[in-house]
Structures are given as structure tokens and as C-alpha cells.
Write a structure and sequence with these properties.
Layout: H1 2-5, H2 9-18, H3 27-33, H4 40-43, H5 48-57, H6 68-74
């Protein structure tokens, strides 16, 4: 949460769009599948704190997801990166 909270709203949106956990589940698909009017487009219209509250409170498991920006910072890409 702290890592994601350091981004601008558009950065948070980009990372959530990219998020696919170790089980192959995408954040957006799982968030919207919860029904009850949960649409990603509505989520990202909220303020940053509310976006983070919902993203981390909706039950999505972020385990295994590493944002591309982290790989880029390390000078690697998702294809060549290896976890030690």
C-alpha cells in the first residue's frame, strides 16, 4: 500500500490496470466481477486514499505481482527477471 500510495492518481491507475497476481488473476477483472456497481472507471475517479482503501479492501490478492516499473528500475524485464 505504501508503495502504491507514492504514485500520482494516474500512476496508481496504471499499476492497477497492469496488476496480475501469481494466480493469473487481473485486478480489474476481479474488482468488477464483485458486482454491486464496482467499475474500475468509477474507482479511479475517487481520491487516492479512497482508491487505495478499495484496492486493498476488496479481497484481491496482490501476491506475485511485481509492477513493470520495478523491473525497469532494476534494469530487467518480466521475461528475463529471476527471483532469487
Amino acid at each position: 500500500r505504501e508503495f502504491l500510495g507514492s504514485f500520482t492518481k494516474s500512476g496508481i491507475e496504471s499499476i492497477l490496470l497492469e496488476a496480475v497476481n501469481g494466480k493469473g488473476q487481473g485486478f480489474v477483472a476481479q474488482y468488477e466481477a464483485q458486482g454491486e456497481g464496482k467499475k474500475f472507471s468509477s474507482l479511479v475517479k475517487k481520491n487516492n486514499g479512497e482508491i487505495l482503501d478499495e484496492a486493498f479492501g476488496c479481497g484481491y490478492d496482490f501476491t506475485g505481482f511485481v509492477p513493470a516499473c520495478v523491473f525497469a528500475f532494476m534494469g530487467k524485464d518480466k521475461v528475463t527477471a529471476k527471483v532469487d
